[in-house]
Every structure is written in C-alpha cells, then in structure tokens.
Amino acid sequence: MTVLKLTDQQRTALNLFTQKPRQAWQKNTHLAAEGADGVVWASNGASLFAIPLELDDFAAYPTYYLKDGAWLPVDYAIPDFDTVLERARCPTGEAAQYDPELLLLFKQAAKELGDPTGFFKVHHNGPQRAGTVHFKDLKCWGLIMPYVDYIGNQPPPELTTLNGE
Known about the structure:
It is a single chain. This protein is of the alpha+beta class. The protein contains 3 helices and 8 strands, in the order αβββββααβββ. Helix 1 packs antiparallel against helix 3 (100-112).
C-alpha cells in the first residue's frame, strides 16, 4: 500500500468534485503517476480538478485511487483522459456555456487552497470539448465540459463522451 500525504486543504478541494458522482468510479480521488511526476485528480464526470505532485514510488502502476488515506492501484475501469487532456491543451477560444454549479466548485476549491478571491479563468474550447480552468498563483488546474443543449436544460456531457471525434 503506497501512502502519499495530501494537505487537509488539498483533500477538501478534491472532495468538492466527488460529491455528486454519475458513476461509481467518480466517488474516488485518483492519482495518475508517470515516473516522478503525478497528478491527483477528482471528477464528477462533467468537471475535473487536478493538483500536480512530485512522486517517489508510484511508477509500478499508472493509476491509483484513495481509500482510507492510502493510495491503491486501480482495479476497475476508468476513462482514459489522455485524449481529453490533449485536446484541452490548445483551446480554440470558441465560446461555450458552462453549468454555474460546476464553476462554483472551482471557486470553492481555489479558496480552500488559499486564494481568498477564488479567482480562476476558463479557456473556452467550443461546445464539444472540455474547457481548461487555470488558477492564479495556485499549482492546480481543471477541466469543465460545456452544456450541449443549454436552452433545453440538458446536463453537461461526461468528460470522455465528447472528445471531438
């Protein structure tokens, strides 16, 4: 069992994104490890919050989940976010509509991590791709899916269902 310490503030910020899971895997906080670099992330399906970390001994498995304070190798299917992340790296600037409740989660996370204003910026990527969320002076980032049918009051799609293909 591998242990990685998160601060109480980091844990609280990540937990904001596991409150209303659409699927069972979304109730967990995950760690994607690649050598000495890793990203701790949590997703409710329509938004994702991530904190980059330096790692010591996580190279044996690519993905972990947090259970009872310890990181365990993922033994269930989770979406592969590589395609979504790649397409989100170069946002198009094309406008999109976002769920205000999801946007508020990012503000709350920023405040929890020490930014009293909760300031963040969404880089729009059109109505079919995830927008990227950047924070001022914080080592964290996020993704948010736009509403597909804003007027029809449809919920945002899953991060992995609309990846531009």
